[in-house]
Amino acid sequence: MAAGVATWLPFARAAAVGWLPLAQQPLPPAPGVKASRADEVLVVNVSGRRFETWKNTLDRYPDTLLGSSEKEFFYDADSGEYFFDRDPDMFRHVLNFYRTGRLHCPRQECIQAFDEELAFYGLVPELVGDCCLEEYRDRKKENAERLAEDEEAEQAGEGPALPAGSSLRQQLWRAFENPHTSTAALVFYYVTGFFIAVSVIANVVETIPCRGSARLPSKEVPCGDRFPMAFFCMDTACVLIFTGEYLLRLFAAPSRCRFLRSVMSLIDVVAIMPYYIGLFVAKGDDVSGAFVTLRVFRVFRIFKFSRHSQGLRILGYTLKSCASELGFLLFSLTMAIIIFATVMFYAEKSTNKTNFTSIPAAFWYTIVTMTTLGYGDMVPSTIAGKIFGSICSLSGVLVIALPVPVIVSNFSRIYHQNQRADKRRAQQKVRLARIRLAKSGTTNAFLQYKQNGGLEDSGSGEEQALCVRNRSAFEQQHHHLLHCLEKTTCHEFTDELTFSEALGAVSLGGRTSRSTSVSSQPVGAGSLLSSCCPRRAKRRAIRLANSTASVSRGSMQELDTLAGLRRSPVPQSRSSLNAKPHGSLDLNCDSRDFVAAIISIPTPPANTPDESRPSSPGGSGGGRASSTLRNSSLGTSCFLPETVKISSL
Amino acid sequence: MNLEGLEMVAVLVVLALFVKVLEQFGLFEPVSLEDSVEDEFELSTVCHRPEGLEQLQEQTKFTRKELQVLYRGFKNECPSGIVNEENFKQIYSQFFPQGDSSTYATFLFNAFDTDHDGSVSFEDFVAGLSVILRGTIDDRLNWAFNLYDLNKDGCITKEEMLDIMKSIYDMMGKYTYPALREEAPKEHVESFFQKMDRNKDGVVTIEEFIESCQKDENIMRSMQLFDNVI
C-alpha cells in the first residue's frame, strides 16, 4: 500500500507531537520543503487519449517514470501536457496503479505487450496485485516456455544445416535422431520399421494352426512347427538388423551411459536378448518353461515402434505424467475390492455349492462386477448378496469414472502441446526465411547501390544517373554506414551465394583453367584496395574477387578462374597465373572507364581472345557485361602482366 | 455375523440411499442445525460521510483547498469513510518498519477518537490534525497531555507514562545504537517526572505539564516541527 504511505505521512508527522514533551534533546528542524503549492492537475496525453490526474497521485511512486523527473522529457511545452506515444489502453492500468496502489493485469491483452509497457513506465512486475498475480505468472511462464521451445527448435533446426566439422559419430547420431536430415537416415528408418513389423507379424503367424505336415495331413500344428526353418531365418534376419542398429546407436551416442539407461535402449535389448539366449540354451525339457517365457518377450519388439510413432510416445508420456492419478485409481479400487469381496463372501457363505469359496475367490467376482464386465461365472444367490452385489456394481462405475477425466485431460494437453510445437516448427521455417529475406534485402539494396556506382565520389554523370531511384534518408545513412565499415576493414560486403560458391569452388580445386578476366568489383573497391591495403591487396584482390563476384550473375567459369588463381600447382596456365600476382601491383586508375578496375590474368595474349569469347556469353547476363568482358579481354593484351585489376560486370 | 444381521444391514443401507434420493427431490427438508445463512447478509461496508466543507472549515483551521487534499487522500485509503483501530495500526506501522508501533498507534487512535466510538472518521481526523498543525502551543500541549492520559482522568501517573514510554521505545526496534537497555524507559520516565512533577505528588496534572513545558527551551524550539507539514 505504498499509495497510502504518501497520503498518511502528514498524519504520522503530526503524531510526533506525542514525543515532543518527552524528548530530552531538541528535535531536529523540519526539512525545508518549498511551500506546498496547491495541488495541480496534470494532463497526460497518450496517443491522443487525454488522462488527467493530480500531480500528487503521480508523486506517490517517485521511482517510476511518471513519478520522477523523467516525465519532463516527455513534456510538450506548446500544449502543456505530457505526451507518450504508447498504447492508451494499457496506460489506463498503469494510471490506476498510481491511484489505487494495485496493478491489475488485463486479461485480454498479450502478456508481453503488458510487460513492455511496465518496463517503459518503470514499474516492476512484482507490483502486480495479488488478485491478478497468479494469472500473470502463469501466462508469463507459458510465454517463456514457448520462447524457450522456439529457441531450442531454432538451434536444433539449424544444427542439421551446418554439419561442418562434425565427426562421423555426431553425424550418425543426428541421422538416428532426426531421420529427415538425410536420405540414408530416412531409408534406415523405414527399413527398421519394416523389419519390426515383419518380426511382430511372424511371431503372430507362428502360432496359427496350419495344416499338418505331409505325413499327417489331418493333424493341425502351428505354422511355427510346420515351417521351422523359414521362421527361424526370418527371426534371425530381424534380430541381426536389430542388433546392428543397437550397436550403431551405442557407438554414435554422445553419452553412452545415458543411452544405456534410456528406455528405448532397454526395449531394444529386451527385444533381441531372447533370440541370443535361445541360441545358447539347449532346447532341453528342463529349461523349456524359461524358453517359452523368452518367446513371450519377443513381443516387446512392438514397442520399438514408439521411435517411429509420435502418438505412442505421447501416450507413454501421458501415462507417466498421470502416475499419481493412476495410483489413486488403483488404491481406491483395491480398497473397494477388498471390502466388497469380504461382504459377498460372508453373505454367500450359507449357500450350498457356492462359488464364493474364499475371499480371494470373491475378488474375481468383485472386479468383474465393478468394471461392469459381468461374466456371470459367479453370481450371488442370497438376497443380501444380491443387494450388496448391486451396490458393488454401482460404486464400481463411480470409482473408475473419477480419475479417467484427469488422465484424458492430461493426454489432451500434452497432445496439443506437441501439435503446437510441430506447428511452430513448421512456421519457424517460414519465420526464419522471412528474417533471412529481410536481412538479405538490406544487403542486396546496399550491393545494388554499390553496383550502380553510388559509391563513386566523383562519378561520371552517366553512372550517377543510374541510381536515380529514390532512397529514403534512412537508407542513405545506412548505406553510408556500411560503406564506412567497408573502408575500415578493407573488405567488402557480398552475398551468401557468391561467397559459398567461391568457397566451394576453392575447396574443390577449381575446374577449368580459364584465364580470362573475371568480374566485378566497383571502382570504389579498386581505389579502396589501392588506398588502404596496397601490400595485402594481392591476396585481397583475389579473395575479394572471389567473394564479390557475381552479385547476381557470377558465372561458375569466372569463379573457377579465380579459384584457379589461388591454386599454385598442377596446370601450367594456373601456375603462371599464380606467379604473376606476387609481383608488384599497380592499380590502374584509368580503369574508371569500365566503372571499376579489372583483373587481368597474365596469360599469353593469344589464349585470351579465344577463351574469353566463349566464356563471355556464358558468363554475363547483361549487354554491358559482355562488352566489358570484351574490352577487358582486349585490354589484357595491352596491359602489363603485372597489373591486376578488378573489373565489374 | 449371522445372516439375519447382514440382511438387516443391507436393508438399512438401502433405506439410507432411498432417503438421500428423496432429499434430492426436495421432499425431505434437511434438518439444519445452524442458521448461519442469515449472517451472510451482514453489510460489511458502513459508509460514513463527513459534514459539509463549510462546517469543517469553521471547525478547523485548514483552508478549503487543504481540506480537499486531505479528504481526497483519506477517501482514497478508506472508501468507507472511517478508520478502525486495525487499519490505524497498519497504517502507522508502515512508517516504522523496524520496530513495533502497534501500542503507540493504539494510544494515538484513542487520542484521535474523541467521541470514543471505536472508529476515526474524517472529522475526528481533521480535528486532531488541526489542533496539532495549526493550533497554538498550548493547544498542542493539551493534545499531548490528552494522549498521555490514558484513562482520561486529568492526570498522568507513573504507570501511564511508563506505558507510553515503552510503546515509544518499542518503535525503535531491536537494532539501535547504543543498544537499548531494559531500564531505559523507566529512567526516562523518572527524569520526566522529575522535570514535570512540581509538587512531587507522583502524578502530573495538566497545569504542571503545561507550565513545565513552557519553561523548557528545547520543547519550545521543537514546536516549529509542525510548521510545514501540510
Question: How would you portray this structure in words?
Answer:
Chain A: Residues 40-139 form the BTB domain. Chain A: Component of heteromultimeric potassium channels. Identified in potassium channel complexes containing KCND1, KCND2, KCND3, KCNIP1, KCNIP2, KCNIP3, KCNIP4, DPP6 and DPP10. Chain A: Belongs to the potassium channel family. D (Shal) (TC 1.A.1.2) subfamily. Kv4.1/KCND1 sub-subfamily. The complex is a heterodimer of chains A (649) and B (230). Chain A is mainly alpha-helical. Helices cover 61% and strands 4% of the residues of chain A. Among the domains of chain A are: 41-156, Potassium Channel Kv1.1, Chain A; 168-212 and 219-308, Voltage-gated potassium channels. Chain C (Four Helix Bundle (Hemerythrin (Met), subunit A)), CATH 1.20.120; 317-431, Helix Hairpins (Orthogonal Bundle). Chain A has helices spanning 2-14, 55-59, 88-100, 111-121, 130-161, 168-177, 183-205, 223-226, 228-252, 256-261, 263-280, 288-297, 310-321, 323-348, 359-370, 383-401, 403-451, 461-466, 473-489, 496-508, 523-532, 537-548, 556-566, 572-579, 607-619, 623-638, and strands at residues 41-46, 49-54, 75-76, 81-84, 209-211, 220-222. In chain A, strands 2-1-4-3 form a four-stranded mixed β-sheet. In chain A, a hairpin with a 4-residue loop joins strand 3 (75-76) and strand 4 (81-84). Chain B has 230 residues and is mainly alpha-helical. Chain B has a single domain (3-228), classed as EF-hand (Recoverin, domain 1, Orthogonal Bundle), CATH 1.10.238.10. The mean pLDDT of chain B is 82. The relative contact order of chain B is 0.09. Classes of the chains: A mainly alpha (649), B mainly alpha (230). Chains A and B meet through helix 1, helix 14 and helix 16 of A and helix 1, helix 3, helix 5, helix 6 and helix 7 of B.
